[in-house]
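To close the section, here is one more complete example, presented without commentary so you can practise reading it yourself. The ligand is LOHRUJSQ.
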Amino acid sequence: MLREIRQNEKISYHIEGPFFIIRLVKPDNLNALEGEDYIYLGELLELADKNSDVYFTILQSTGRFFSSGADFKGIARAQMDDGVKYASETSKWLSNFVARNVYVTDAFIKHSKVLVCCLNGPAIGLSAALVALCDIVYSINDKVYLLYPFANLGLITEGGTSVSLPLKFGPNATYERLVFNKPFKYDIMCQNGFISKNFRMPSSDAEAFNEEVLKELREKVEGLYLPSCLGMKKLLKANHIDSFNKINSLEVNGSLQYWVDGEPLRRFGQLSSKERKHRL
Ligand SMILES: CCCCCCC/C=C/C(=O)SCCNC(=O)CCNC(=O)[C@H](O)C(C)(C)COP(=O)(O)OP(=O)(O)OC[C@H]1O[C@@H](n2cnc3c(N)ncnc32)[C@H](O)[C@@H]1OP(=O)(O)O
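Output:
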């Protein structure tokens, strides 16, 4: 029995045959997501997981960015929220950061359906971490990149990136980009087989790109015995699942002290007031 799920104005979903399609639909702020939106994403993954007609969970987005990561306005609101009285800074960030982050990351790590990401543009931060947890990635063109700006924001790796990035791009390439806050550009994503296909479409054509990927997927799944696809995902995942589960806990618990000390909040504030920028 499938439960009902609430609506979210930044994220839509629909089911089409074996595909559970999740779409980010807030292009005006580059699909930045607040804590509650990431929780909603996790809930949608659970919904897809429980639906036995679904074999592929497809992440799509709109506009020029896939997602610019955590919404800095939402983070400032969490800090100013007088409505909730926390016993301590630790208690506040356990609620606002640790619980949410560990939940959405876990939803991606344990997801049993094949996760497909349609990268219509760059992805940043936690959203980029979730992209790196997908099984198959298609890109709209060669202008896409992934940026993990943790060193610029007073944070440390999260969303499983301590495992997913070295696994997919190699340890030294990962160190160079994480430590010096540099993006993983299209070239390295291609060299490592991270991107399965570049659709070579203009960045302004996200909608057409999303439709084209779906059209190809419909053709690709024709005649397949879909339970085999899930059986293979389970086995491929078995190689790394223990490392992901372990790192999810280590990452959020490690980050907690940074939030309690206040540096990320200060730097998110600077990002919001445009005093701080990421070098791209
Ligand atoms: C589940 C727990 C939740 C808490 C998790 C906390 C842990 C952190 C996780 C992360 O995701 S860290 C990464 C956070 N994101 C960023 O650092 C990106 C910030 N944005 C930028 O650096 C730039 O916007 C850009 C992405 C490089 C694009 O630059 P560009 O010059 O092309 O566009 P802008 O004019 O800057 O942006 C357009 C529009 O969008 C708004 N916006 C962009 N990113 C965000 C964001 N992350 N949050 C809120 N709003 C965002 C930006 O303010 C502009 O809006 P207007 O000024 O036009 O109203």
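Once you have examined the tokens, check your reading against these statements. The radius of gyration is 18 Å. The first helix runs from residue 35 to 50.
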